[in-house]
Structure formats: C-alpha cells, structure tokens
Amino acid sequence: MKKVYVKFNTISPVSHLTPPNKDTRMTATQRMIKLVIEKQNGKKEVQNVPVVSGGSLRGKNRRAFITKVLGELGYYKDNLLVGLSQEVFEALIAGGRQAGKSERFPQVEKYISIYNDLPFFGLFGGVVYKAFFPGRLSVGFAIPMVEETRHLFIGMDSPYADENMPGISALIDALGNRHTYTRRKVENIAVLDEVDFSDIASLLRDANFDEAADALENDMTSYNDKLAAGEEDNPKLVLKELKKVIESNDALRQHMVAMLKITKPSEQTASKIVGKLINMYNLQMLYEVPNPIPAGINLHSYIAMTPGLGDDRLMAATFDAFIETIAESRYIGGIHNKGYGQVITEVKTENGKNFGETSDAEYFWTWLKENKKQIRAALENLEKYLFTGQKVS
Fold first, then answer.
1. For 265-311, what is the HEC assignment?
2. Separation of alpha carbons 290 and 18, rounded Å
3. Among 132, 118, 133, which Cα is nearest to 382's?
4. In the beta sheet, which residues pair with residue 50?
5. How many other CB atoms are there within 10 angstroms of residue 60's CB atom?
6. Which of 18, 82, 28 is nearest to 52 (CA)?
7. Cα 105 to Cα 238: distance, rounded to the nearest angstrom
8. DSSP readout, 122-163?
9. Distance between CA atoms of 126 and 11, rounded to whole angstroms?
10. Residue 345 in contact with residue 336, Cβ under 8 Å?
11. How far is 248 from 148, CA to CA, in rounded Å?
C-alpha cells in the first residue's frame, strides 16, 4: 500500500456544491459531512463540516491525467480525439457505464493482465464492455485543517498534523454565509443587484438611436426602483417606453432585429423584440454559493494506492504520475470561472518528504512511450483482448 498526504493552501473561497433538485434554480448546497471534532477541553462532539469530496478530487484529476496519457499515445490530433472508441474512452476518462445485470466476465488471465497492460485504467478501475474492474485508488475527502480536526490528521500519521491551524470558530463563523450572484432580488437570500442593460443602450447610442437608449434606461430605472422599494412581489420587466419608440421608428426596429440576430420575420415586431430582451434578462444566471469554505482555511486529503493486481513498480509509478497531476492543479471544488477554489497544492509522503523528491512518475511515462504500439493495440481491440484468446497487435 502506498499513500500520500495532500495539503491545499486555499487562496480563494472554496465551494463544492451538491447538484440542484430537478426543476429548481437555487437549491444547490455546500457538500457537508459529519466529523468528530475535538474541543480544547478534550471533549469530542459531532459537527457538520464543509468539505470537497474525494470523488470530486478523483474525477477532475482523472480526466486531466487520462487526457495526458491519451495525448502521449497519439490519440489527440488538432485537439480532437481520433482512433479510440466511445466505449473505451468513457471507461478511461470517467469509469464507463454501470454494468447492470448483464455484466460480462473476461478471461481470467486477461482480467489479471489488464492491470499490467493498461495500469492507467487499472489504477482507477471502471466498467468497459460490461466487465467491471475494481480500481486501486482511494481518494479521501479534503477536510478543513483546523485545531479541532487535528486529531484526525494525527490518527492517519500525516506529516501535516503538527502545522499551525486556526480554531474551528473561523470556519463556523463563515457558515450561513451566502455569496449571491443574481440579477433579481430574492427575498431573504440575495441582495439587490440592479438589472443593467447599459451595453445595449451604448450600442443604440453608437447607432444614433438616442431616443431608444433613453427609453431603455428609463424602463430600467423604473424597474430597479420597484425592486428596491419592495412594494411588489417579483415585479415584471416590461420595457414599455422602449416598445413605443420601436413601434414609431422602423429604422430602429430593423437595427434591433440585426443587433439581436432575429431571423424569423414573425419575430421582428416591436412586441417580439421587447420580448426577446426581457427573456435575455430572465435567462441571466440566478444562483448562490452557500457556506463556502473561506480563503485561508486550508484543506487536507489522504490518497492511497491499495493492494491489488498489477506489477507493483509500474502501478506505483502510475499512481505517482496521477499524484503529480493533482500537485500541478491550481483549483479544487467548483465554480472556477467565478474565482472559487484557487489553491497552491503541497504533497508529502509517509516519512514527511516532499513528494517530488521521491516520485517515480518518470518510470510510468517512459514505460508508456516504450510500449506505445502494444498499448494502442490493446485499447483499439479491447473487446477482443478481454473476451477471446486471440492476441492483439
């Protein structure tokens, strides 16, 4: 068994959300798990703590690692995947599809040898051609590093257990905090962020349709005033003044048709143009980030290669190559496009050494290059490789 310890130094808030319920827009919640925390008085209690799941760390970095592997094998040309079946690609990059009741069983020697011939699949495991292969990789939750969770890191012999850590109050105080991103007022949740069609107004002014720009801004001001006053529940955006101006000016109407790329003649009326603008507003993203882990609360994960099939040296080197992918990553969790989850990643071995000093990843990459022909043959004929006695070449 091989294991490493990962410390994510957070330099922006971290959010790892559970999926929203069907047909709802704002129900995603921060991933939380129950942990036993140890208080200063020595007493222990169960506490809900925000985390990033091991599945998230595993899945994101699996995709990045397998992409590098397939690139080395020559399956990417002009950023397109070529020469590999959908079934095999899905199995490699995401674990494939569930086997279900119709699971198939490959020949025993091939079941065993796949861990040597395709260790980058055997490490993660998955389902391919309805045959299930257990992986050898275990990725733990990324847990906040606070004084009250230190006993967990001591228990797993982590070299990070002796580091300075803030009290859990710094984390708990942040819970209940919601970062909101909305163009509409959401009662008791989101603060008002005014609707802003200034870009459209500027485009109208650039085309010398100042009257239309004024009308749009007046409609927006009226709507935002209603939102701020809170006198109406969900006031409607109507763009009444703008509609009148469009109806009275055919050149303006035609200009807006072109600007909004409206191709159907039946949708080129003033009412339809205004309706499209209102719909653009309604489609603005409406979501929140509840209970983000604040920047400065670092996270700790334990990752192991468990005992199993495959050449130990090669599988361990494959594991190291995967860990290097994690070490290179600069984000965890989700919503990277909004700046969440930015981290600086450290990795240490069981004896406290920096992972880079002991990594055997180069052995894996050398093996991959030297055996490229045989590996490609196995991947491109994988069903025959698994279920017949025929050799593939």
1. HHHCCHHHHHHHHHHHHHCCCCEEEECCECCCCCEEEEEEECCCCCC
2. 11
3. 118
4. 32
5. 18
6. 18
7. 63
8. HTTEEEETTEEEE--EEE--BEE--GGGHHHHHHTT-TTTTS
9. 34
10. no
11. 69
Burial label, 229 (beta-carbon count in 10 A; 0-12, 13-18, 19+) = exposed
**Cα gap 19→29, rounded to integer Å:** 8
Q: What pLDDT does 284 receive?
A: 56
The SS3 assignment for 210 reads helix
Q: Which residue has the higher pLDDT, 174 or 325?
A: 325
| Per-residue pLDDT at 280 exceeds 90 | no
**pLDDT tens digits along 118-160:** 999 999 999 998 889 999 999 999 999 999 999 999 999 999 9
The model's pLDDT over 226-253, given as tens digits with 9 standing for 90+, comes to 766 666 666 778 889 999 999 999 999 9
pTM assigned to the model: 0.72
DSSP code of 100?
A: G
Q: pLDDT-derived band of residue 23, with 50, 70 and 90 as boundaries?
A: very low
pLDDT classification of 24: cutoffs 50, 70, 90: very low
Q: What mean pLDDT do residues 265-278 have?
A: 90
pLDDT of residue 126: 92
- Alpha helices (H) along the chain: 54-72, 86-94, 108-117, 119-122, 150-155, 169-172, 198-206, 210-229, 240-248, 250-259, 270-282, 312-328, 355-358, 361-370, 372-380, 382-387
Rounded Cα distance between 223 and 30, Å, is 33
Q: Which among 248, 231, 338, 236 is positioned nearest to 279, based on CA atoms? A: 236
Contacts of 100 (CB under 8 A, 6+ apart): 130
Q: Which amino acid is at 63?
A: R
66-122 residue pLDDT tens: 999 999 999 987 777 888 999 999 999 999 876 556 777 877 888 899 999 999 999
CB 99 within 8 A of CB 127: yes
Q: Output the six-digit token pair for 270.
A: 């003033």
